[in-house]
Amino acid sequence: MRKKEMKNKVKEMLVDEIMEKVRNEISRKSIKHRIRKAERIYEIFNKIGEDKINRIIISTAEDFIKLTIGEKDKIIEEFSKE
Questions:
Q1: Among 41, 47, 56, 80, which one is least packed by beta carbons within 10 Å?
Q2: What is the DSSP letter of 60?
Q3: Beta carbons within 8 Å of 22's beta carbon, 6+ residues apart
Q4: Taxonomically, which superkingdom (predicted)?
Q5: What is the CA angle 44-47-52, rounded to 5?
Q6: Within a 10 A sphere around the Cβ of 21, how many other Cβ atoms?
């Protein structure tokens, strides 16, 4: 299996496990959407480092979700320079 296929399989397993826990109170689509949002935020924080997280002006998770790929890359680039 290629890396991308493996990652997708693991995500599906995660969604299956979450679906069991929430007993179908949340849709599968909603769970996948929440996972994608968390991945975007994690990617930014992971790349800029813990020491610089407090310097980010964006205040809510929703603000991070609304970032375009270019904006996200720009934030990572700016904080990586320092």
A1: 80
A2: S
A3: 31
A4: Eukaryota
A5: 80
A6: 8
Q: How many residues does the chain have?
A: 82
* Cα distance between residue 19 and residue 74, in whole Å: 35
Whole-model pTM: value is: 0.68
Query: For tokens 């996948």, what's the residue?
Result: 32
Radius of gyration of the chain (CA): 15
Dist. CA 72–CA 56, nearest whole Å? 12
List the chain pLDDT tens, one digit each, 82 residues: 688 888 889 989 999 999 998 887 889 999 998 888 888 888 888 888 877 777 776 667 778 778 888 888 888 888 877 6
> In 10 A of CB 31, how many CB atoms?
17
Question: Which amino acid is it at 15?
Answer: V
> Which pLDDT score, from 0 to 100, does residue 78 have?
82
